[in-house]
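DM from R.C. (forwarded with permission)

"hey, sorry to bug you on a friday — could you get me a structure for this? deadline for the figure draft is monday and I only need the backbone to look sensible"
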Amino acid sequence: MSLTDFSFHLFYNPGVFSLISRNIVLGAIACLVSTFGIAQTAAPAPENTPKSSDPELVTCGEKPPLASRTARSSTLLAPDQKHRAYAEIEATALYPQRPSGYSGPLCVNNSRLFVADTGDFKLRFLQEPADVENGNSLRLVDWSADGRRLLAEIAEWQYEQPGVTRSVLVFDSRFGTFQQPDLARSLAKTFSHDCSMNLRVLGFGTQGQIVLEAQPLTPEEEEVSGTSSCAKKRTFFELDRATENLVSVPEMPKVQHNAKVESGK
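My reply, with the result:
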């Protein structure tokens, strides 16, 4: 998924249908058809998971009454001082609490990336809520050593369901293009079968590779998604941006810190 128009238009991402989300939906459909013969609405979970106590996830709150809120990240200045970027995440509460007879979402998220070269900040990327993942957040990780590429992490989740899917987003400031590697396919290729892990983007390695930390799924996440964990312990990977190949490494690689963090606007 990338832009080829060098006029730097907005990159619009309506939501990535991840492997976990696909399995959740297919499993739910199969269960409903086999048990009832027709689709029925399941009772909502008691809590608005993922919990609002996670500082990296912007939500409408853990329990009613829910409230809308917007959070803005610090600004990352590229090492060549030619590019600056920040993220803005908006969580919109559709209702403060669930109305009688309503089975839709209570909170939906929009995440935006703003980038400035020499002038004002412009909106470059928009992540909208999807039917199966109506929560999302965007975390800026670092600029590459040459100041060309911005590395970010997209988190997506379904409110009132366990688990958060994190993926890689790379912005090329030279051409205004985006790359979002298919990590589900990369994991399947690495382990020779469909599987999943809780991934976290750590940064750029010393050779420009993308460093990832992976934790096994919880038993609840495996049950809901119908997907097994690729590994049963904490694992580190190096992702080749060009080929999207994942290589497992025995210990955490050295991670660079190239960008300068600006707290103000």
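R.C.: lifesaver. The chain has one domain: 11-40+63-257.
me: no worries. The longest helix spans residues 19-35.
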